[in-house]
Amino acid sequence: MAQQDGIIKIQGTLGGITFYKTRDGYLVREKGGISKKRMKSDPAFRRTRENGQEFGIAGRYGKFIRKSIRPLLLNSNDKRVVSRLVKQLMDILKTDTINSRGMRTPIDGQIELLKGFEFNSNGLLSNTLFMDYVNSLDRSTGEVEVMLPEMNPMQMIAAPAGTTHFKVVSAATEIDFTSGETFSSYDSSTEMEYQESLQPEILLSTSVTPNSTLPIFHFLGVEFYQQINNEFYMLNNGAFNALSIINVNKA
């Protein structure tokens, strides 16, 4: 692997030589590899094609899940959430015993294993909320709820330094993984003081289509704020906000 030297750095392919940028600087290598035509048709690469197809399926599933809760993800995610979610979906896809290799899907596998997935590795819900909560789903009415009992926030919530207030957020989504269509609803508490005093129970109510036949996902998160001059500012741009999947109902 050669390193580019000189004032002008090149990116791209020229005369069979590829110039590219990495975290280690600008590098150069000879273009090589297998042609796309051979990759698509050669029996020797059948497994490679199957793996590629399934990776694409997992990628689409992850995209639909993230799209369904985009407003919450804007406040609670890490830089590797896309790859982490796809990796878990690939593991779930392998539990599909219905379809053949290359055609397996997470929904035909144990997609319930997504329960507990954390969207922000820097602010895990499991390391943020130290209390039991009760969540419920009624498919006939479409009601999806989560209830947190009364609590002392400073004892039950681990907040980053500088926190003056916190908010508990929830979302329920139903996703059609064939069309990519999603339906989501959201609820949240008010900004509550992060202090050594008893706070009332929190009931967050969301909903999906009554009698839906689609898989339903339930999310719970905690956001941290700092109050300055009667205005609430999200602490560290949400770097430590938590968001997790707390229930997956396949239907």
Brief synopsis:
The chain has helices at residues 36-41, 46-68, 70-73, 81-93, 153-156; strands at residues 2-3, 12-14, 17-22, 25-30, 134-138, 143-148, 165-175, 182-188, 192-193, 202-207, 216-228, 231-234, 242-249. With 251 residues, it is α+β, with helices and mostly antiparallel strands. The strands form three sheets. Strands 7, 8, 9, 11, 12 and 13 form a six-stranded antiparallel sheet that branches.
> Overall mean pLDDT score?
88
Number of domains: 2
Globular, elongated, flat, extended or rod-shaped: what is the shape?
globular
Radius of gyration, in Å, reads 23 Å
Residue stretches low in confidence (pLDDT < 50, at least 5 long) are: none
Counting H and I runs of at least 4 residues, what is the number of helices?
Answer: 5
Distance between the termini: 52 Å
State the secondary-structure class. Answer: alpha+beta
Helix content: 10-25%
How much of the sequence is in beta strands? 25-35%
**How many E strands?**
13
Described by strand count, sense and barrel closure, the largest sheet is:
6 strands, antiparallel
Order of helices and strands: EEEEHHHHEEHEEEEEEE
